[in-house]
């Protein structure tokens, strides 16, 4: 039986040089690694992000591809990219999903588990 599965891992970083806390502007980078852990070649078509700051202000972002790419991954292949977001608070979180289409035409969503955006050395 065919398996349609991508595994997503995320590393985050606070970009102090691009942030301005006095103006409630906090910038974070996130590095994403997507691995085709299924058995069928598939392409990432679009993304949907839900970004929430510490004041529970929610921003949704939808779009084609990731950083201008719609990577086609064979089983075992991976694609890495770095992007970023800004928040009005020093903490927040993101989660979402990628919409993918397999080589055989099967459509599937890949859940991106929630991850925390936070200044270094700060805890809620």
Automatic annotation (TrEMBL):
Single Gene Ontology BP annotation: error-free translesion synthesis
Q: Which positions are tagged coiled coil?
A: none
Record's InterPro entries?
A: ApaG_domain, ApaG_sf, Uncharacterised_ApaG
Domain (ApaG) ranges: 1-124
Which gene produces this protein?
A: apaG
- Write down a Pfam family by its short name: DUF525
Q: What is this protein called?
A: Protein ApaG
Q: What is the lineage of its organism?
A: Bacteria, Pseudomonadati, Pseudomonadota, Betaproteobacteria, Burkholderiales
Where does the UniProt annotation place the signal sequence? Answer: none
- What superkingdom heads the lineage? Bacteria
User: What Gene3D superfamilies does this protein's entry cite?
Assistant: ApaG domain
- List the PANTHER family: F-BOX ONLY PROTEIN 3, POLYMERASE DELTA-INTERACTING PROTEIN 2
């Amino acid at each position: 039986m065919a398996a349609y599965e991508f595994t997503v891992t995320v590393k985050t970083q606070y970009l102090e040089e691009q942030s301005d806390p006095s103006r409630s502007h906090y910038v974070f980078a996130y590095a994403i690694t997507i691995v085709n852990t299924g058995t069928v070649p598939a392409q990432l078509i679009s993304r949907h992000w839900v970004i929430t700051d510490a004041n529970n202000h929610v921003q949704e972002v939808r779009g084609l591809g990731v950083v201008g790419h719609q990577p086609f991954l064979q089983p075992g292949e991976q694609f890495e990219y770095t992007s970023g977001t800004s928040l009005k608070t020093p903490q927040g979180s993101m989660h979402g999903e990628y919409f993918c289409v397999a080589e055989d035409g099967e459509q599937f969503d890949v859940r991106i588990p929630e991850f925390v955006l936070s200044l270094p050395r700060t805890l809620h």
